[in-house]
Amino acid sequence: MAKLAGVSVSTVSRYLNKSGYVNAETQRSIKAAIEKLDYAPNQVARGLAGKKTKTIALILPDISNLFFSDLARAVEDVAATYGYTVILGNSDDQGDKERRYIETLKKKYIDGFIFASQTFGPGDAEMLTKLGIPYVCLDRGPSEQSSSVVRSKNKEGAAMAVRHLLEIGCRKIAHIYGPQHLITGKERLIGFEEEVQRFNWYTPTLLEEGDFRIRGGMNATERLMRRHPDIDGIFAGNDLMAIGALKALNRMGIKVGKQVALCGFDGIQTTEITVPELTTIAQPIYEMGALISRLLIKKIEGTLEEDRLYELDVKLIARDSTLAFDPK
């Protein structure tokens, strides 16, 4: 850069950081060099300074979902122990909004990104790689790109939920599944279907799509119960939809736990305060956030040996929404 502009490195640094006088002719030379090399000014400044800001960005799809707020807490706790600060961005699962975050934050000399959203794609990954900015992902990485990815064992957790409902005596189990463009929704649906397809009572009409939100769980439950009033077990693809199912069943006068057993997925704290308390397949949310934070910091500091997939175990937390079930 400095060589192409015909000036010293310190002069380029003064121009980029606006930290001293640079005459108009020299400014034009540096600007022309930047344009010719197709470098963003912040890239050059990063290379010249050779410094890190000890700042990472966490991009979430929906901070109102307690799963992601718990995850963010873990990321922040671990980052702080390494002396890093976390900047939070809420993408609402909108690719354009996420890219605006990337464009804005890369100019702030962010050292790395954690993407917990599902809209981070190969083009975004290529851009960050070109800029030399490390990133790690929750649940899935961009296709055809190497990345460290942290997720829980979704299929295994769904199978665990079905087996639990069968063990307590359920004879007709429905599933409210999440959006199928999300790996969490897809794998939990697969795990459910693999467990129930061997039963004579199973029919695809026992499946209903939700949106991983409370309202989606309510609407899906209403549709399911209209089609199959004899449903006695529901596995919701996440806890928010399970809470929605609980509300819908209560409105219908159906006793959750006794007449219909209900199980969610995630293990958010809200499941402990519903009436009845909700059975859930709990992800190790804090551990996931802690691990993904450590992985990114290792990438930033050049100590991560290789990128790979990390799948963490889930566990069943059985509560009154299933344990009080009274099979007829």
State the helix count. Answer: 13
Arrangement of strands in the largest sheet? 2-1-3-4-5-11
Provide the low-confidence segments as ranges: 43-49
Q: Determine Rg (CA atoms, Å).
A: 25 Å
The largest pleated sheet is described as: 6 strands, parallel
SSE class: alpha/beta
Strand content: 15-25%
Number of strands: 12
| Global outline | elongated
Distance between the termini: 78 Å
**What fraction, in percent, of the residue positions are helical?**
40-55%
Give the H and E element order.
HHHHEHEHEHEEHEHEHEHEEHEEH
Integer average pLDDT: 88
Describe what this molecule looks like in 3D.
This protein has helices at residues 2-5, 9-17, 24-37, 41-49, 66-81, 95-106, 122-131, 154-167, 183-196, 214-227, 239-251, 285-300, 320-323; strands at residues 55-60, 85-90, 112-115, 135-138, 148-152, 173-177, 207-209, 233-236, 261-266, 279-282, 309-312, 315-317. It has 328 residues and is α/β, with parallel strands linked by helices. The strands form two sheets. Strands 2-1-3-4-5-11 form a six-stranded parallel β-sheet, with helices on both faces. It has a six-stranded mixed β-sheet with strand order 7-6-8-9-10-12, sandwiched between helices. Helix 2 (9-17) packs across helix 4, helix 5 (66-81) crosses helix 12 and helix 8 runs parallel beside helix 9. The longest helix is centred in the first third of the chain and has 16 residues, at 66-81. The chain is elongated. 43% of the residues are buried.
